[in-house]
Amino acid sequence: ELTHFYRTVPIFLTYPWYWIKKMYRSKHFRLFLVICMACALAVSVFLTIFLAYDNAQLRKVNNIICKV
């Protein structure tokens, strides 16, 4: 029974890899991936800028409160 398990493991490795490669050959799928990566990059940059701005505002308020 254990040898049967080891014989079927490559199916779980090669079958999904086959479909990933097959989808990646599609021009539309690659364009979809580029759009998703561009959106992820834009969200990442926006969140970084927002957090930096919010941190600067928090420090400004904290300095005013601590001086009083």
Outline the fold blueprint:
Layout: H1 2-24, H2 27-67
Keywords: Membrane, Transmembrane, Transmembrane helix
Transmembrane segments: 31-53
Walk me through this protein's architecture:
This protein has one domain (2-67). By secondary structure, it is mainly α. It has helices spanning 2-24, 27-67. 0% of the residues are buried. The protein contains two helices and no strands.
- What class do helices, strands and sheet pairing give? mainly alpha
Number of strands: 0
Please estimate the helix content: over 70%
- Distance separating the two termini: 75 Å
Poorly predicted runs of 5 or more residues = none
Characterize the biggest β-sheet: none
Gyration radius from CA atoms, angstroms: 25 Å
**Which percent band covers the strand fraction?**
under 5%
Quick one: overall form?
A: elongated
Order of helices and strands: HH
How many domains? The number is: 1
Please, how many helices?
A: 2
Q: What average pLDDT do the residues reach?
A: 87
Question: Main attributes?
Answer:
68 residues; mainly alpha; elongated
Quick summary:
The chain is an all-alpha fold and 68 residues long. It has 2 helices and no strands.
